[in-house]
Specification:
By secondary structure, this protein is mainly α. It contains eight helices and no strands.
Length: about 230
């Protein structure tokens, strides 16, 4: 069974983990400096944020691919060209599932008008289903970083139902373990120094750390799912 604790341990103990995570966190910190600088044009912040998100997507793909294929290093090398190439392929691979699933959920949700709490529950289930379809597509692509793998519709929808619960419990697990671990140190820094550069950098570091954990955890899920391709996994 996929373990979030194992994911935390593996990310923390990977070779040069702290250094790599810190380097990936620096662009997030830079985005924050642009955001709080009154003299910085909004366009600069938006461009920087989109660029950071783009490379973090490549970062996530590489981690998931490394774990699925049992490579020695979990975190990818600091090669922006490889990260960019992986991110571009991932966007091409999952853009259609993202657009179709999100559009369908928006359309169906517009007809759900029963009771407020019922509407929230039903819409949440629909968005979890959309997330499961997107995650399935992402995992199928990440195994070999082959764009065509993401379009195996039969396997995509077969596993979406299972992934609804996995995604739901992943969110709960991530919240709990962050509160019990990273949250304490973050609170201590905030309590002692307030919103200062070290605190913001720490938050940026935890964001990158959590992305790495999610990549590792989803790769674990891949092992437990019905296979496709050479390994018959999602």
């Amino acid at each position: 069974m996929a373990s979030i604790i194992d994911s935390f341990k593996e990310v923390a103990s990977d070779k040069l983990s702290a250094v790599k995570l810190l380097i990936f966190a620096l662009p997030i910190y830079y985005c924050y400096t642009l955001y709080i600088d009154p003299n910085s044009p909004a366009l600069d912040f938006q461009a920087a944020s989109l660029t950071v998100l783009f490379f973090l997507l490549g970062f996530l793909v590489k981690i998931t691919n490394n774990v699925i294929n049992e490579r020695n290093e979990l975190l990818p090398a600091l090669n922006p060209l490889k990260l960019a190439f992986s991110a571009i392929k991932c966007i091409i691979a999952i853009i259609i599932p993202v657009v179709i699933s999100c559009s369908l959920v928006n359309y169906v949700s517009s007809f759900i008008v029963i009771l407020p709490w019922v509407d929230i529950v039903l819409k949440t289930i629909l968005w979890l289903l959309a997330s499961a379809v997107i995650t399935s597509s992402f995992l199928m692509f990440s195994q070999r970083e082959n764009i065509l793998d993401a379009f195996k519709v039969k396997f995509l929808f077969e596993k979406a139902g299972d992934l609804i619960f996995i995604i739901f419990f992943l969110l709960i697990k991530m919240l709990l373990i962050n509160v019990l671990t990273l949250g304490f140190l973050g609170y201590a820094i905030y309590f002692l120094f307030g919103v200062c550069p070290p605190y913001v950098l720490y938050i940026a570091y935890t964001v990158v750390f959590n992305i790495a954990v999610i990549g590792h955890y989803m790769a674990q899920v891949n092992y437990e799912s019905a296979s496709v391709g050479n390994k018959n996994s999602i």
